[in-house]
Amino acid sequence: MKRSPTIQIHATEAAGAVPRLHNVVVKFIEGPRALTEVELQANSMTRHHVTDFYREQISNSGYYEQLKYIVEPSLEEFESPGCLDTSGEHDNTVLPGLQHKYAQTGLLLVTDRCASYCRFCFRKRMVGKDSDEIAPDFARLAQYIGGHPEMTNVLLSGGDPFVLSSAKLDNILDHLLPIPHLQSIRFGTKMIAFQPKRFEDPALPAVFQRIREARKTAVIVTHFDHIGEISVDAERNIRLLSAQGVQFLNQSVLLAKVNDDPEILAATFAKCHQMGVHPYYLFQGRPVKGASHFQVPLRRGLEIARGTNQRLSGLQKTYKYIMSHYTGKIEILDLGADGRVYMRYHQNKTPETIGKIFSRPYVEGACWLDDLPKG
Ligand code: SF4
After folding, report:
1. Containing H/E element for 340?
2. Where in the chain is the domain with CATH 3.20.20.70?
3. How far is CA 248 from CA 162, 207, 220, 243, in A?
4. Measured in angstroms, how far is the CA atom of residue 24 from the centroid of ligand 1?
5. CA distance readout (Å), 259 to 23, 32, 66, 295, 324
6. What single-letter DSSP state applies at residue 219?
7. Does residue 2 have a pLDDT over 70?
8. β-bridge pairing 31-36 and 93-95
């Protein structure tokens, strides 16, 4: 199995220059290139790091030629237009590290680090960097959440919450568990793909037990994009934690060259179902600067979703094909014979809008709501 070369970074300094200039040799999928740190920063290049475990898993999966695009940098990143906050996260930030976009959900940014870094990450503006968007003060966040009884669940995200130690997670829970109206504590994580042994930490069961004893539900939302990412270790740990009462859901991103194939997605969701992980969302790729080359046109995305559903039982196709747009979470329903894309707001800041079906004329190649003209 051919493996993509790993990035090696050689930093050289221009003698006597102030400030010092560093050259970095990056081994892209297409071949090595020397870049200055200024160029890397100007292009918001995501940090390159892949765990040994994941590297081995995808190399041995039989799908390396698809899976390499998830974590290996490509020169396409320099050509991909878009923005760095496609879902309006800044506008929905109510306190540093806390977003409150939908009434029932609080989204906490608890870290800017991940075990490995996905090239398509919609939070590439902050992951792998020292970000000032990370929650600095959980007592203050808890005060806000406590004053918002409509908020029934919190999602710990980032970055990946499981890069934090179990003691740190415990510390965050100290602030969240006393809030009576919180019914569930959700963790969004790709760690189960990147480093499943993290879930063998003997201190972790007590973390989930605390959530249970506080009469709340612990939910782990895994992020498997492809069946080749689901390792034996991941399955074993999911089964162990499920037996301890942790609920599992999975979200995937529809990614060009990686999983834009109904056979692959159906196999991924069927495997999730078999492990007791409910397929939850299939996200349309976002127009992220440096990552929009992963987007799949809506026409093809709908064909893939339909092809996936044709291969699955009702129990397995519990996911929604979703565009997480600035205006809300939009379920992508169909491309009608009238040439219009039919959609429905799954989540919206305005409750009256939720569930309403609307349509826009399809434009060939459109990947996002903003690519579709009004009318
Ligand atoms: S694990 Fe999640 S947060 Fe981290 S880089 Fe991948 S998509 Fe982004």
Report:
1. strand 340-348
2. 93-371
3. 15, 16, 5, 11
4. 23
5. 34, 26, 7, 11, 19
6. E
7. no
8. unpaired
Q: Which residue has the higher pLDDT, 195 or 20?
A: 195
Mean pLDDT of the chain, nearest integer: 93
Structure tokens at 254: 């529809």
Q: Pick from 107, 110, 114 the residue to mutate for probing ligand 1's pocket: most ligand atoms within 8 Å of its CB.
A: 114
At position 196, the amino acid (one-letter code) is: P
pLDDT score of 21: 62
**How much distance in Å is there from the Cα of 47 to the middle of ligand 1?**
11
Reading the block at residue 119, the tokens are: 């090239």
Whose C-alpha lies nearest to ligand 1, atom 7? Answer: 121
Tokens representing 131 are: 């970000």
75 Cα: distance to centroid of ligand 1 (angstroms)? 20
User: What separation in angstroms does the CA of 188 have from each of 2, 110, 162, 248, 261?
Assistant: 31, 11, 9, 10, 24
- Three-state DSSP class for residue 249: strand
Nearest CA to ligand 1 atom 1: 190
Express each pLDDT in 245-275 by its tens digit.
Answer: 999 999 999 999 999 999 999 999 999 999 9
Residue 367 CB coordination number (10 Å): 23
Query: Number of H helices and number of E strands within the chain?
Result: 10, 15
CATH architecture of structural domain 93-371 = Alpha-Beta Barrel (3.20)
Q: How far does residue 179's CA lie from ligand 1's centre (Å)?
A: 28
- End-to-end Cα distance, the chain: 50
CA atoms within 13 Å, Cβ hemisphere of 258: 27
Cα(373) to centroid of ligand 1, in Å?
A: 31
Residues with CB under 6 A from ligand 1: 114, 117-118, 121, 123, 127, 159-160, 190
pLDDT tens, 178-203?
A: 999 999 999 999 999 999 999 999 99
Tell the residue nearest (CA) to atom 8 of ligand 1: 121
Please check the confidence at residue 20 and state whether its pLDDT lies above 80.
Answer: no
φ and ψ of 342, to 5 deg: -100, 135
Q: Helix (H, G, I), strand (E, B), or coil: what is residue 220? A: strand
What is the C-alpha to C-alpha distance for residues 148 and 254, in angstroms, rounded to an integer?
34
